[in-house]
Design brief:
- The chain is α/β, with parallel strands linked by helices.
- It is built from 13 helices and 6 strands.
- The protein has helices at residues 2-10, 18-21, 32-39, 60-74, 84-95, 97-113, 122-133, 143-149, 153-159, 161-167, 175-181, 199-202, 206-222; strands spanning 52-54, 76-78, 134-139, 168-172, 189-196, 234-237.
- It has a 4-stranded mixed beta sheet with strand order 4-3-5-6. It has a two-stranded parallel ribbon with strand order 1-2.
- α5 packs across α6, α5 (84-95) packs across α11 and α6 (97-113) runs antiparallel to α7.
- The longest helix has 17 residues, at 97-113.
- The radius of gyration is 19 Å and the shape is globular.
C-alpha cells in the first residue's frame, strides 16, 4: 500500500489531511486505536460524545439505519478496516471536527423528526451532499467567487490563474471526493462552500487555516437556511483547480465543456 500513501502525501488535493496522514503508518492502513489516539480530547459528536472509530455493526442494515444516531449518542463512528472510504471519513472527522459534529447533529434531528417517513428530505440530502462531496473554498478576492458561482471556469482558472493561486485556497471536505482522487478522472465535481478570508489566513500554517475554516463551515451549517436547498452550494470541477491536474497547465484544457459546463441559460446565480 506504500504507493497510495505516497500519492496521498504528495498530491495537492490531500493538503488538508497531510498533517494527519504524516502521523499514521506509511506502509499500511491505520488501526482503529491509532485513529482514536488522534481524536482524544478534541473531537466530539453532535451530541457531545467523544468520537471513537470502531469496527462496523455485524448487520449491514443496522450499519445503515443507526449510523448517524450511533455517532450522535455514543460517539462511535463505524469504520471498516482497510477501507479507503471509511478511512477518509475518519480523517475528515479529525481535520474538520466542528463541521462534522454540526452535520451529525442535523442528521440526528432529521432522523428523529422524520421517523417512519420513507423519504430522507431536502435537509438530509444537503447534509449528505456536502459530507460526501463537499469542498471549502477560501477567497481573499471578492471577484473570484463570483466567477466560480457563474461557472466561468476558463476565466477563473486560466485568465485569472495568478489571482487564484494568490487569493484562493481549496480544502476538500467530502470523503467520497478523496476516495475518487486516488484514481482521479475528468468530471469529478465537488459542492463548494465559499467563505471570505483575510489574505494572511491563506498563507498561515495549515493548522490555523483548518481551525478557522472548520469554525466558519460549522457556523454556516448551523443555520437552517443552509439546509433549504442542495442548490445553495456551487458545483466545482476539482481537476480544474490550478495544479490539481498536470494537464490543466494549458488554456485548451478548459475548453472541454463535458468537464467545465457553463451555467445553463435561466439558471439562477448562487449567492451567499
Amino acid at each position: 500500500m506504500s504507493g497510495p500513501w505516497r500519492q496521498a502525501l504528495e498530491a495537492p488535493i490531500f493538503a488538508a489531511l497531510r498533517l494527519l496522514i504524516e502521523r499514521l503508518p506509511r506502509d499500511r492502513f491505520p488501526r482503529h486505536d491509532e485513529l482514536n489516539t488522534l481524536a482524544i480530547g478534541s473531537v466530539v459528536s453532535g451530541g457531545g460524545a467523544p468520537i471513537r472509530f470502531v469496527p462496523p455493526a455485524a448487520s449491514s442494515r443496522e450499519f445503515s439505519a443507526q449510523y448517524e444516531v450511533r455517532i450522535f449518542e455514543t460517539g462511535e463512528v463505524q469504520t471498516r478496516p482497510d477501507n479507503w472510504h471509511d478511512l477518509f471519513n475518519a480523517l475528515v472527522w479529525l481535520a474538520f471536527p466542528k463541521t462534522k459534529a454540526v452535520l451529525n447533529r442535523h442528521h440526528h434531528e432529521q432522523i428523529r423528526a422524520r421517523r417512519g417517513e420513507r423519504l430522507r428530505g431536502t435537509a438530509r440530502d444537503v447534509l449528505t451532499l456536502f459530507d460526501e462531496g463537499g469542498i471549502v473554498v477560501a477567497a481573499a478576492d471578492a471577484e473570484l467567487p463570483a466567477l466560480l458561482r457563474d461557472c466561468r471556469w476558463k476565466e477563473l482558472f486560466w485568465e485569472r490563474r495568478a489571482d487564484v493561486l494568490r487569493s484562493m485556497r481549496f480544502y476538500v471536505f467530502g470523503h467520497a471526493i478523496y476516495e475518487k482522487a486516488l484514481e482521479p478522472y475528468k468530471g469529478v465535481t465537488a459542492k463548494a462552500l465559499i467563505v471570505d478570508a483575510a489574505p494572511d489566513l491563506l498563507d498561515a500554517p495549515m493548522v490555523r487555516q483548518l481551525s478557522e475554516l472548520d469554525a466558519r463551515s460549522a457556523d454556516y451549517f448551523s443555520g437552517t437556511q443552509a439546509l433549504a436547498s442542495t442548490g445553495n452550494l456551487s458545483p466545482l470541477p476539482i481537476l480544474g483547480i490550478p495544479g490539481w491536474d498536470p494537464s490543466n497547465a494549458c488554456a485548451e484544457y478548459y475548453d472541454d465543456h463535458a468537464q467545465f459546463r457553463p451555467r445553463r441559460s435561466g439558471e439562477p446565480v448562487l449567492r451567499k
